[in-house]
Amino acid sequence: MKIINSDFITSASKFNQLPKMNLPEIAFMGRSNVGKSSLINTLLQRKNLAQISKKPGKTRTINLFNVEYINTDDKRNNLVFADLPGYGYAKVSDKMQLNWKRLIENYLQKRKYFCGVVIIIDIRHQSDEKDIQAVKWVRSYQKPFLIVATKSDKLSRSKVNNQISLLKKEFNCLDEEQIIGFSAKNFSGKDIIINWLEKTIKNFDL
Ligand SMILES: Nc1nc2c(ncn2[C@@H]2O[C@H](COP(=O)(O)OP(=O)(O)OP(=O)(O)O)[C@@H](O)[C@H]2O)c(=O)[nH]1
Ligand SMILES: [Mg+2]
Q1: Which residue among 38, 91, 119, 124 is best mutated to probe the pocket of ligand 1, counting the most ligand atoms within 8 A of its Cβ?
Q2: Which of 100, 156, 170, 204 is 20 to 30 A from 16 in CA distance terms?
Q3: Number of separate domains in the chain
Q4: Range of 162's domain?
Q5: Any residues with Cβ below 6 Å from ligand 1, and which?
Q6: What's the pLDDT tens digit per position in 141-195?
Q7: pLDDT tens digit string along 99-117?
Q8: 5 and 81 Cβ atoms separated by less than 8 Å
Q9: Which parts of 71-142 are beta strand (E)?
């Protein structure tokens, strides 16, 4: 799969504001400021399509992106990326946190063409309760997911491997549940994510 084009579609702060797309959709979720938008921009080869911020909590809505790609058979196709709002931002009120939970829950449960989710964590940190909770939550919906440990450029290669083994234990990963290292700075791990996208879409019955 090769991504050739991308566009912002819309932002929605409520589930019922999301447009019906009739295209396979991949969601991206993780803690606030972990690097979701940077990961999306890297995959789309765009500098700032999904906004990047130094201030955590920038993405408070579900942002949809239309992605055009060609497959190995040279056919053009489209899919959708959904940048989900980050969890666990301390400065957000309890009410906002509850709204967030409802929005994501509705999304995971009801979004018709949602076919898989990329869960993003920071490779430098031990998993915290919110990340472990998020993975358990996503597992309960029985959709394919890929855990991406980002900012790998901040660690040496040997530390990256150690940290991934540690994280796999902390998340109680089954053999088929992968955790991969990734960096939006040097693009390591990008190809593995693209391959996972391709496989996930192919396995999804529209
Ligand atoms: N070194 C390094 N920095 C990164 C990487 N990915 C993201 N960052 C930095 O981390 C910060 C947050 O990145 P974003 O992509 O905005 O994170 P986000 O998860 O979308 O944040 P919110 O939408 O605010 O929840 C920015 O300063 C990025 O430049 C990476 O792979 N390596
Ligand atoms: Mg963001």
Answers
A1: 38
A2: 204
A3: 1
A4: 2-203
A5: 30, 32-38, 52-54, 56-59, 86, 150-151, 153-154, 183-185
A6: 989 999 999 999 999 999 999 999 999 999 999 988 989 999 999 999 999 999 9
A7: 888 899 999 999 999 999 9
A8: no
A9: 76-83, 114-122
